[in-house]
Amino acid sequence: MYKSKILPWFFLLPILIFVTVFLFYPFGVNIYNSLFNFTSILDQNPSFSGITNYLNLFGDSTFVTSFTNTLILIALVLIFQVGLALILALLVSVIDRFASVFKVTFFLPIVISATALGLMFNLFYDYDFGMLNQLMIQLGQEKIFWMDPVNIIRRFMLTMGPVLWQYVGFYFVIFLTALNGISSEINDAAAIDGATGIQKSLFIKIPMIQNVTRTVFVLAITGTLKVFDLPHVISPGGFPNGELHLLGTYMYEKAFNSNQLGVAAAFAVIIAFAGVLFSGISNLIFKNNEEI
Fold it and tell me: Fewer Cβ atoms within 10 Å of its own Cβ: the N or the C terminal residue of the chain?
């Protein structure tokens, strides 16, 4: 059975068919659609435009803004979201008491609907009755218009903050699983040699989960490129004036508000290739360690 060259294909064929039908074929159709101008999926005779949709996007200042905002968010995700998840995983991996409580607490935001989280944070930011301004009043301070459209930097951070917070638990679980897979004999040997907890984390644990970190970076980058729900609920339409648009929210704007389906298809192609490009760069920086 193990020498047969046909049998492995027998087991691989179902998943190959599934991926072809539900991934490669739709993506190919999307590339084809991006070369046409049409405003409805019922349009039977859309006009061919070639790469005009792509050129129009790159000449669109709001697209440039959304792309820049997405790049900034990717940097914030890699530094704060993934970084915090790693730190929390390192801390939880060395405790025995209440470890399960911390695991559930950190993972809980992922279970909650993103729309519900967005509405919750909108309530936090409310000028009259929001939790933040109620705290300011209790501290004897003046209320703050947290989502002031003039202060675009603060509004950007308050819009993207929940995005960073929501998925910390997801990467925390991945890191914690990898850390639990490290042999206890290695940690015991390091303790005998006099290594402190910080030294064991920096020189043993983090290097030994290098391949997992590499995977997490790819997941974080590709996931950020597709972020839509939370920013759309907190700052719908990229308010103010599209300055807070991300790639995902601006693509939605083009597809469902402006009915520019050909442009939206080109948008999806750009996001897909950006994911491949950035993931490739991440894999080059964090090369796979085959010795682990």
Answer: N
